[in-house]
Predict the structure.
Amino acid sequence: MKGIDNHFALAIDVGGSKVAYALIDIQGKMLGPIDKLAVPFDNNGIASAERLIAQIHRFVEGANLYPGTFDGIGMGLCGNVDLKTGMVVLAPNLHWRQVPFAALVAKAYRLPVFASMDVRLAALGEAVWGGAKGIKNFAWVTIGTGYGGYFFLDGKLYDGRHAFAGNFGHIPLDEVAGYPCGCGLRGCIETYVSGPAIARAAQEVIDANRSPTLMHLAGDGKVTCKMVFQAEAVGDPAATEIIEKVIRIVAKSVAGLVNTLDLEMIILGGGVTNGCPDFVIRLDRHIRGLLMTEEAKSELVIIKESFPNSTLFGAAANVFISQGLLKF
């Protein structure tokens, strides 16, 4: 247990389906395990801010009991967040628009709350304490419930005009006939490569009676992204076709980022990235085949995230940096 002079923060990562919680100190060390709970949704499929705030209660209580200085709450959200106000401008997977979530949490618990896009904080965590420490130009890329990332350019986070940079998952591949996306557009890259997209493609395969393996795994329930990776692992052709298509599309997207920004490193996170042992190796191979320069092909570093959840570490770092306790 740390000494009473230790500074720590409650880090929260609100994803499209799960919320992760952890206490992390100013040295970037977790003070216990990561807790994960489901995002509470109402009957209309909209994430309930009220129930989510109530869910946070026991973690704030635990932080208040921990020895040391509790400096506040760092929060990553799966959407566009106004850095000054903490307003969630748009969170497609939560179906939120203009939700003042950080202010609501701060009012409920009378604590400083520092909120940002989850992908922005993941990049920050990697830059402060992770594999990108000392790297001046990199991109964080996550493939999970959604698809997107954030940029760290010339030694600092690249926020753009509104701190909404990195939404490359919402570039439409087919805005006319593509699948509807939570952002309001159609045919976004996210609708082809995310976990839900993989599960949807698998259901289409089952409906077409093309995969006895997937039919067996799904049984009478819904097919999941995890099942597709399981089917691929035993040689199912349809499952392999689905995953290979995901890899090709992501490779084109990431290679485009590298060709455009001349990046040194790509850091990959998210549940799909961890779907099978060789996913990153296969993706790496496809990305390099699409790079423009020989320098990029030989020098680009592609790694998996450094932490069990990089957003949590970035959320904690954001608290300490925002309060002047950590120089970065």
Notes: The CA atoms of residues 56 and 307 lie 22 Å apart. The longest helix spans residues 237-261. The chain has eleven helices and 13 strands. The mean pLDDT is 95.
